[in-house]
Amino acid sequence: MEITVTSKKVSSYNIVTKESFEDLSSILIDIFPDIKCVCLVSDSNVFPLYEKEVKEELKKIKGLKIHEYVFKAGEASKDMSVVEDLAKYLLSVNFSRSDVIISIGGGVVSDLSGFVASIYKRGVAHVNLPTTLLAMADASIGGKTGVDFEGIKNTIGAFDMPSLIYMNLSTLNTLPDREYYSGFAEIMKHGLIADQKFYMWLIDNMYEICDKDKETIAQMLETSINIKKAVVERDPLEKGDRALLNFGHSIGHAVESYFEGEYLHGEAISLGCVAEAYISWKSNMISMEDYYEIRDMFVPFNLPISIQVDKKAEEEIFKRLLNDKKNDINSINIVLLNKIGKASLVKGVDQNLIKEAISEINFKDED
Ligand SMILES: NC(=O)c1ccc[n+]([C@@H]2O[C@H](COP(=O)([O-])OP(=O)(O)OC[C@H]3O[C@@H](n4cnc5c(N)ncnc54)[C@H](O)[C@@H]3O)[C@@H](O)[C@H]2O)c1
Protein backbone atom coordinates (compact mmCIF):
# COMPACT_ATOMS: atom_id res chain seq x y z
CA MET A 1 0.00 0.00 0.00
CA GLU A 2 1.21 3.49 -0.79
CA ILE A 3 -0.67 6.60 0.29
CA THR A 4 0.46 10.15 -0.47
CA VAL A 5 -0.43 12.88 1.98
CA THR A 6 -0.67 16.18 0.11
CA SER A 7 -1.63 19.67 1.18
CA LYS A 8 -1.03 23.11 -0.30
CA LYS A 9 0.09 24.43 3.07
CA VAL A 10 2.78 21.87 3.96
CA SER A 11 5.13 19.52 2.12
CA SER A 12 3.79 16.19 0.79
CA TYR A 13 5.05 12.78 1.86
CA ASN A 14 4.38 9.13 1.25
CA ILE A 15 3.19 6.46 3.64
CA VAL A 16 4.24 2.98 2.52
CA THR A 17 3.36 -0.33 4.14
CA LYS A 18 5.59 -3.36 3.65
CA GLU A 19 6.26 -6.69 5.32
CA SER A 20 9.99 -6.03 5.85
CA PHE A 21 12.58 -3.22 5.78
CA GLU A 22 14.02 -4.36 2.45
CA ASP A 23 12.76 -1.45 0.33
CA LEU A 24 13.83 1.25 2.77
CA SER A 25 17.20 2.12 1.19
CA SER A 26 15.88 2.47 -2.35
CA ILE A 27 13.00 4.70 -1.19
CA LEU A 28 15.40 6.85 0.87
CA ILE A 29 17.68 7.31 -2.15
CA ASP A 30 14.69 8.39 -4.25
CA ILE A 31 13.83 11.08 -1.69
CA PHE A 32 17.39 12.06 -0.69
CA PRO A 33 19.65 11.26 -3.70
CA ASP A 34 22.73 12.69 -1.91
CA ILE A 35 22.10 11.21 1.52
CA LYS A 36 25.38 10.87 3.47
CA CYS A 37 24.51 10.57 7.10
CA VAL A 38 21.56 9.48 9.25
CA CYS A 39 20.88 9.25 12.97
CA LEU A 40 18.69 6.36 14.08
CA VAL A 41 16.63 7.41 17.09
CA SER A 42 14.90 4.67 19.03
CA ASP A 43 14.03 3.45 22.51
CA SER A 44 15.57 0.79 24.73
CA ASN A 45 12.93 -1.85 23.88
CA VAL A 46 12.72 -1.38 20.13
CA PHE A 47 16.35 -0.79 19.15
CA PRO A 48 17.66 -4.22 20.27
CA LEU A 49 14.85 -5.85 18.23
CA TYR A 50 15.37 -4.02 14.93
CA GLU A 51 18.85 -2.46 15.02
CA LYS A 52 20.49 -5.26 13.02
CA GLU A 53 17.79 -5.48 10.34
CA VAL A 54 17.63 -1.71 9.79
CA LYS A 55 21.42 -1.29 9.74
CA GLU A 56 21.85 -4.21 7.31
CA GLU A 57 19.31 -2.57 5.01
CA LEU A 58 20.93 0.89 5.26
CA LYS A 59 24.34 -0.58 4.38
CA LYS A 60 22.99 -0.87 0.82
CA ILE A 61 23.50 2.92 0.61
CA LYS A 62 27.18 3.26 -0.27
CA GLY A 63 29.26 5.28 2.21
CA LEU A 64 26.28 6.14 4.45
CA LYS A 65 27.35 7.14 7.94
CA ILE A 66 24.99 5.80 10.62
CA HIS A 67 24.75 7.35 14.09
CA GLU A 68 22.41 6.09 16.76
CA TYR A 69 20.71 7.53 19.83
CA VAL A 70 18.69 5.28 22.12
CA PHE A 71 16.67 6.53 25.11
CA LYS A 72 14.80 4.74 27.90
CA ALA A 73 11.45 3.40 26.63
CA GLY A 74 8.30 5.04 27.96
CA GLU A 75 6.26 8.25 28.05
CA ALA A 76 8.55 9.71 30.76
CA SER A 77 11.19 10.15 28.05
CA LYS A 78 8.95 12.55 26.12
CA ASP A 79 10.69 15.26 28.08
CA MET A 80 12.81 18.37 27.45
CA SER A 81 15.80 16.73 29.15
CA VAL A 82 15.85 14.05 26.43
CA VAL A 83 15.34 16.69 23.70
CA GLU A 84 18.41 18.49 25.02
CA ASP A 85 20.42 15.30 25.32
CA LEU A 86 19.63 14.23 21.75
CA ALA A 87 20.50 17.72 20.43
CA LYS A 88 23.83 17.54 22.31
CA TYR A 89 24.50 14.13 20.78
CA LEU A 90 23.74 15.41 17.26
CA LEU A 91 26.11 18.34 17.79
CA SER A 92 28.82 16.01 19.09
CA VAL A 93 28.73 13.96 15.88
CA ASN A 94 28.61 17.08 13.67
CA PHE A 95 25.14 16.21 12.38
CA SER A 96 24.40 18.73 9.62
CA ARG A 97 21.25 20.24 8.14
CA SER A 98 21.45 17.94 5.13
CA ASP A 99 21.43 14.80 7.30
CA VAL A 100 18.33 12.77 8.16
CA ILE A 101 16.87 11.62 11.49
CA ILE A 102 15.20 8.20 11.27
CA SER A 103 12.90 7.28 14.16
CA ILE A 104 12.28 3.59 14.87
CA GLY A 105 9.56 2.95 17.43
CA GLY A 106 6.18 4.01 18.70
CA GLY A 107 4.58 7.42 19.15
CA VAL A 108 6.98 8.42 21.92
CA VAL A 109 9.94 8.00 19.56
CA SER A 110 8.32 9.77 16.58
CA ASP A 111 6.94 12.64 18.72
CA LEU A 112 10.32 13.25 20.37
CA SER A 113 12.60 12.79 17.37
CA GLY A 114 10.25 14.73 15.08
CA PHE A 115 10.38 17.63 17.53
CA VAL A 116 14.17 17.57 17.71
CA ALA A 117 14.27 17.41 13.89
CA SER A 118 12.05 20.51 13.75
CA ILE A 119 14.35 22.62 15.95
CA TYR A 120 17.90 21.28 15.50
CA LYS A 121 19.78 23.81 13.36
CA ARG A 122 16.33 25.24 12.48
CA GLY A 123 15.20 21.96 11.01
CA VAL A 124 16.51 18.72 9.54
CA ALA A 125 14.57 16.07 7.62
CA HIS A 126 13.01 13.16 9.48
CA VAL A 127 11.63 9.78 8.51
CA ASN A 128 9.37 7.61 10.68
CA LEU A 129 9.56 3.82 10.91
CA PRO A 130 6.57 3.22 13.24
CA THR A 131 6.57 -0.08 15.14
CA THR A 132 3.35 0.16 17.21
CA LEU A 133 -0.22 -0.04 15.93
CA LEU A 134 -0.84 3.36 17.50
CA ALA A 135 2.07 4.99 15.69
CA MET A 136 1.10 3.34 12.38
CA ALA A 137 -2.54 4.41 12.57
CA ASP A 138 -2.02 7.77 14.14
CA ALA A 139 1.10 9.20 15.83
CA SER A 140 3.59 8.92 12.95
CA ILE A 141 1.20 10.63 10.48
CA GLY A 142 0.38 14.31 10.21
CA GLY A 143 3.47 16.07 11.49
CA LYS A 144 2.46 16.77 15.10
CA THR A 145 5.62 16.47 17.18
CA GLY A 146 6.44 17.39 20.75
CA VAL A 147 7.06 16.50 24.36
CA ASP A 148 5.22 16.72 27.68
CA PHE A 149 5.99 19.62 30.02
CA GLU A 150 5.25 20.17 33.72
CA GLY A 151 3.15 17.00 33.71
CA ILE A 152 0.93 18.22 30.87
CA LYS A 153 0.79 16.21 27.65
CA ASN A 154 2.34 17.58 24.44
CA THR A 155 2.74 21.11 25.79
CA ILE A 156 5.91 21.92 23.86
CA GLY A 157 6.03 20.95 20.22
CA ALA A 158 5.84 21.88 16.57
CA PHE A 159 4.14 20.92 13.35
CA ASP A 160 6.83 19.37 11.19
CA MET A 161 6.00 16.99 8.35
CA PRO A 162 8.05 13.80 7.98
CA SER A 163 9.67 13.10 4.60
CA LEU A 164 8.52 9.48 4.63
CA ILE A 165 6.59 7.03 6.80
CA TYR A 166 7.74 3.47 6.19
CA MET A 167 5.64 0.86 7.99
CA ASN A 168 7.02 -2.63 8.31
CA LEU A 169 3.89 -4.45 9.46
CA SER A 170 5.91 -7.47 10.63
CA THR A 171 7.23 -5.36 13.54
CA LEU A 172 3.76 -5.76 15.09
CA ASN A 173 4.68 -9.44 15.73
CA THR A 174 6.87 -8.40 18.67
CA LEU A 175 4.46 -5.78 20.05
CA PRO A 176 2.97 -6.78 23.44
CA ASP A 177 -0.82 -7.42 23.31
CA ARG A 178 -1.60 -4.57 25.71
CA GLU A 179 0.18 -2.11 23.38
CA TYR A 180 -1.65 -3.57 20.36
CA TYR A 181 -5.07 -2.93 21.92
CA SER A 182 -3.97 0.51 23.08
CA GLY A 183 -3.29 1.36 19.43
CA PHE A 184 -6.68 0.00 18.47
CA ALA A 185 -8.37 2.71 20.58
CA GLU A 186 -7.22 5.43 18.12
CA ILE A 187 -8.50 3.32 15.21
CA MET A 188 -11.91 2.99 16.89
CA LYS A 189 -11.84 6.77 17.40
CA HIS A 190 -11.30 7.28 13.65
CA GLY A 191 -14.47 5.26 12.95
CA LEU A 192 -16.45 7.14 15.60
CA ILE A 193 -15.57 10.62 14.31
CA ALA A 194 -15.58 10.05 10.56
CA ASP A 195 -16.89 6.75 9.22
CA GLN A 196 -19.83 4.79 10.60
CA LYS A 197 -19.28 1.99 8.04
CA PHE A 198 -15.71 1.53 9.26
CA TYR A 199 -16.92 1.49 12.87
CA MET A 200 -19.37 -1.31 11.95
CA TRP A 201 -16.60 -3.13 10.04
CA LEU A 202 -14.39 -3.03 13.14
CA ILE A 203 -17.15 -4.61 15.21
CA ASP A 204 -17.87 -7.23 12.51
CA ASN A 205 -14.16 -8.11 12.34
CA MET A 206 -13.61 -8.15 16.10
CA TYR A 207 -12.33 -11.75 16.23
CA GLU A 208 -9.92 -11.32 13.30
CA ILE A 209 -8.61 -8.07 14.81
CA CYS A 210 -8.09 -9.70 18.22
CA ASP A 211 -6.42 -12.71 16.52
CA LYS A 212 -4.09 -10.22 14.72
CA ASP A 213 -5.02 -11.64 11.31
CA LYS A 214 -2.52 -10.08 8.88
CA GLU A 215 -4.93 -9.25 6.06
CA THR A 216 -7.46 -7.76 8.48
CA ILE A 217 -4.76 -5.59 10.09
CA ALA A 218 -3.59 -4.34 6.67
CA GLN A 219 -7.15 -3.49 5.62
CA MET A 220 -7.92 -1.87 8.98
CA LEU A 221 -4.77 0.28 8.79
CA GLU A 222 -5.46 1.35 5.21
CA THR A 223 -8.94 2.69 6.08
CA SER A 224 -7.78 4.24 9.33
CA ILE A 225 -4.80 5.97 7.66
CA ASN A 226 -7.07 7.29 4.90
CA ILE A 227 -9.40 8.82 7.50
CA LYS A 228 -6.50 10.58 9.23
CA LYS A 229 -5.01 11.60 5.85
CA ALA A 230 -8.28 13.25 4.75
CA VAL A 231 -8.48 15.25 7.97
CA VAL A 232 -4.84 16.40 8.01
CA GLU A 233 -4.91 17.30 4.32
CA ARG A 234 -7.89 19.59 4.91
CA ASP A 235 -6.31 21.20 7.94
CA PRO A 236 -2.61 20.32 8.37
CA LEU A 237 -1.90 22.93 11.05
CA GLU A 238 -5.03 22.35 13.16
CA LYS A 239 -6.76 25.66 12.53
CA GLY A 240 -10.14 23.95 12.35
CA ASP A 241 -11.33 20.44 11.47
CA ARG A 242 -8.17 18.63 12.55
CA ALA A 243 -9.21 19.17 16.16
CA LEU A 244 -11.89 16.50 15.52
CA LEU A 245 -9.13 13.91 15.81
CA ASN A 246 -9.04 14.92 19.47
CA PHE A 247 -12.30 13.14 20.28
CA GLY A 248 -11.67 11.32 23.57
CA HIS A 249 -8.48 13.31 24.17
CA SER A 250 -9.69 16.15 26.44
CA ILE A 251 -10.70 13.83 29.27
CA GLY A 252 -8.32 11.10 28.01
CA HIS A 253 -5.22 13.29 28.37
CA ALA A 254 -6.39 14.46 31.82
CA VAL A 255 -6.79 10.83 32.92
CA GLU A 256 -3.44 9.86 31.33
CA SER A 257 -1.51 12.58 33.14
CA TYR A 258 -3.36 12.05 36.46
CA PHE A 259 -2.46 8.34 36.52
CA GLU A 260 1.18 9.04 35.50
CA GLY A 261 1.78 5.98 33.33
CA GLU A 262 -0.72 3.56 34.87
CA TYR A 263 -2.78 3.72 31.68
CA LEU A 264 -1.24 3.47 28.21
CA HIS A 265 -2.12 6.32 25.86
CA GLY A 266 -4.80 4.39 23.95
CA GLU A 267 -6.29 3.07 27.19
CA ALA A 268 -6.67 6.63 28.48
CA ILE A 269 -8.22 7.60 25.12
CA SER A 270 -10.69 4.72 25.43
CA LEU A 271 -11.78 6.15 28.82
CA GLY A 272 -11.90 9.64 27.28
CA CYS A 273 -14.06 8.42 24.37
CA VAL A 274 -16.56 6.87 26.80
CA ALA A 275 -16.73 10.05 28.92
CA GLU A 276 -17.04 12.32 25.88
CA ALA A 277 -19.68 10.05 24.30
CA TYR A 278 -21.56 10.42 27.61
CA ILE A 279 -21.39 14.24 27.29
CA SER A 280 -22.61 13.87 23.67
CA TRP A 281 -25.62 11.86 24.88
CA LYS A 282 -26.43 14.28 27.71
CA SER A 283 -26.14 17.18 25.23
CA ASN A 284 -28.81 15.48 23.08
CA MET A 285 -26.38 14.87 20.24
CA ILE A 286 -26.45 11.05 20.26
CA SER A 287 -29.02 8.64 21.67
CA MET A 288 -28.73 6.74 24.94
CA GLU A 289 -28.51 3.48 22.90
CA ASP A 290 -25.55 4.87 20.92
CA TYR A 291 -23.79 5.87 24.14
CA TYR A 292 -24.12 2.44 25.73
CA GLU A 293 -23.12 0.72 22.48
CA ILE A 294 -19.98 2.88 22.15
CA ARG A 295 -19.08 2.26 25.79
CA ASP A 296 -19.48 -1.50 25.50
CA MET A 297 -17.63 -1.77 22.17
CA PHE A 298 -14.27 -1.00 23.81
CA VAL A 299 -14.57 -4.00 26.14
CA PRO A 300 -13.96 -6.89 23.66
CA PHE A 301 -10.81 -5.07 22.54
CA ASN A 302 -9.44 -5.27 26.10
CA LEU A 303 -9.75 -1.52 26.63
CA PRO A 304 -10.83 0.04 29.94
CA ILE A 305 -14.16 1.84 30.27
CA SER A 306 -13.92 2.75 33.95
CA ILE A 307 -11.47 3.99 36.58
CA GLN A 308 -11.75 3.64 40.34
CA VAL A 309 -10.80 6.76 42.30
CA ASP A 310 -12.14 8.93 45.14
CA LYS A 311 -14.03 12.24 44.72
CA LYS A 312 -10.85 14.28 45.25
CA ALA A 313 -9.20 12.52 42.31
CA GLU A 314 -12.23 13.26 40.10
CA GLU A 315 -11.68 16.96 40.90
CA GLU A 316 -7.97 16.66 40.08
CA ILE A 317 -8.73 15.05 36.71
CA PHE A 318 -11.17 17.89 35.97
CA LYS A 319 -8.50 20.47 36.88
CA ARG A 320 -6.04 18.89 34.46
CA LEU A 321 -8.58 19.19 31.68
CA LEU A 322 -8.59 22.97 32.14
CA ASN A 323 -5.11 23.05 30.54
CA ASP A 324 -6.31 21.39 27.32
CA LYS A 325 -5.03 23.15 24.20
CA LYS A 326 -8.51 23.37 22.65
CA ASN A 327 -9.87 25.57 25.46
CA ASP A 328 -10.27 29.36 25.25
CA ILE A 329 -10.25 31.69 28.23
CA ASN A 330 -13.31 30.80 30.34
CA SER A 331 -14.52 28.23 27.82
CA ILE A 332 -13.94 24.49 27.78
CA ASN A 333 -14.10 23.16 24.25
CA ILE A 334 -14.53 19.43 23.63
CA VAL A 335 -15.01 17.34 20.49
CA LEU A 336 -18.40 15.62 20.75
CA LEU A 337 -20.24 13.15 18.55
CA ASN A 338 -23.20 14.34 16.44
CA LYS A 339 -23.76 10.69 15.56
CA ILE A 340 -21.58 7.63 15.10
CA GLY A 341 -19.32 8.67 12.20
CA LYS A 342 -19.61 12.45 12.68
CA ALA A 343 -18.09 14.81 15.24
CA SER A 344 -17.82 18.54 15.94
CA LEU A 345 -15.91 20.81 18.30
CA VAL A 346 -18.36 22.16 20.85
CA LYS A 347 -17.39 25.38 22.62
CA GLY A 348 -18.31 26.26 26.18
CA VAL A 349 -19.25 22.77 27.37
CA ASP A 350 -21.01 22.96 30.77
CA GLN A 351 -18.46 22.32 33.53
CA ASN A 352 -20.96 20.39 35.65
CA LEU A 353 -21.65 18.05 32.74
CA ILE A 354 -17.91 17.39 32.36
CA LYS A 355 -17.65 16.60 36.08
CA GLU A 356 -20.67 14.29 35.71
CA ALA A 357 -18.94 12.50 32.81
CA ILE A 358 -15.79 11.96 34.88
CA SER A 359 -17.99 10.59 37.64
CA GLU A 360 -19.79 8.35 35.09
CA ILE A 361 -16.54 6.56 34.17
CA ASN A 362 -15.58 6.31 37.85
CA PHE A 363 -16.67 2.89 39.06
CA LYS A 364 -17.95 3.05 42.61
CA ASP A 365 -18.56 0.00 44.79
CA GLU A 366 -22.29 0.70 44.91
CA ASP A 367 -22.43 0.67 41.02
N1 LIG B 1 1.80 13.04 17.11
C1 LIG B 1 0.57 12.57 17.07
O1 LIG B 1 -0.23 12.93 16.19
C2 LIG B 1 0.15 11.56 18.10
C3 LIG B 1 -1.07 10.89 17.96
C4 LIG B 1 -1.39 9.93 18.91
C5 LIG B 1 -0.53 9.66 19.96
N2 LIG B 1 0.64 10.34 20.07
C6 LIG B 1 1.59 10.06 21.15
O2 LIG B 1 2.10 8.74 20.97
C7 LIG B 1 2.52 8.25 22.23
C8 LIG B 1 2.03 6.83 22.40
O3 LIG B 1 2.56 6.04 21.35
P1 LIG B 1 2.76 4.47 21.52
O4 LIG B 1 1.53 3.88 22.08
O5 LIG B 1 3.28 3.98 20.24
O6 LIG B 1 3.83 4.40 22.72
P2 LIG B 1 5.39 4.05 22.82
O7 LIG B 1 6.17 4.71 21.79
O8 LIG B 1 5.74 4.30 24.24
O9 LIG B 1 5.43 2.49 22.55
C9 LIG B 1 4.77 1.62 23.43
C10 LIG B 1 5.70 0.57 24.04
O10 LIG B 1 5.91 -0.47 23.08
C11 LIG B 1 7.30 -0.69 22.88
N3 LIG B 1 7.42 -1.07 21.46
C12 LIG B 1 7.22 -0.28 20.39
N4 LIG B 1 7.23 -1.01 19.27
C13 LIG B 1 7.47 -2.28 19.63
C14 LIG B 1 7.58 -3.50 18.92
N5 LIG B 1 7.38 -3.57 17.61
N6 LIG B 1 7.86 -4.62 19.61
C15 LIG B 1 8.00 -4.58 20.98
N7 LIG B 1 7.87 -3.47 21.71
C16 LIG B 1 7.59 -2.33 21.03
C17 LIG B 1 7.96 0.61 23.26
O11 LIG B 1 9.29 0.42 23.64
C18 LIG B 1 7.10 1.06 24.43
O12 LIG B 1 7.49 0.40 25.60
C19 LIG B 1 1.98 9.18 23.28
O13 LIG B 1 3.01 9.96 23.80
C20 LIG B 1 0.99 10.04 22.52
O14 LIG B 1 0.86 11.33 23.07
C21 LIG B 1 1.00 11.27 19.15
CATH class value of the largest domain: Mainly Alpha
How many domains, in number, for the residues? 2
CATH-assigned homologous superfamily of the largest domain? Dehydroquinate synthase-like - alpha domain
How far apart, in Å, are the first and last alpha carbons?
47 Å
The spatial strand order of the largest sheet comes to 1-2-9-6-5-3-4
CATH topology grouping of the largest domain: Dehydroquinate synthase-like, alpha domain
Bound molecules: nicotinamide-adenine-dinucleotide
Count of discrete alpha- or pi-helical segments spanning 4 or more residues: 14
Residues in β-strands, percent? 15-25%
Give an overview in words.
The chain has 367 residues and is an alpha/beta fold. It has 2 domains: 2-174, Rossmann fold, CATH 3.40.50.1970; 178-360, Dehydroquinate synthase-like - alpha domain (Dehydroquinate synthase-like, alpha domain). 46% of the residues lie in helices and 18% in strands. It contains 14 helices and 11 strands. A 7-stranded mixed beta sheet has the order 1-2-9-6-5-3-4, sandwiched between helices. A two-stranded antiparallel ribbon has the order 7-8. Strand 1 (2-5) and strand 2 form a beta hairpin. Helix 6 runs parallel beside helix 11 and helix 11 (265-282) crosses helix 14 (351-360). It binds nicotinamide-adenine-dinucleotide.
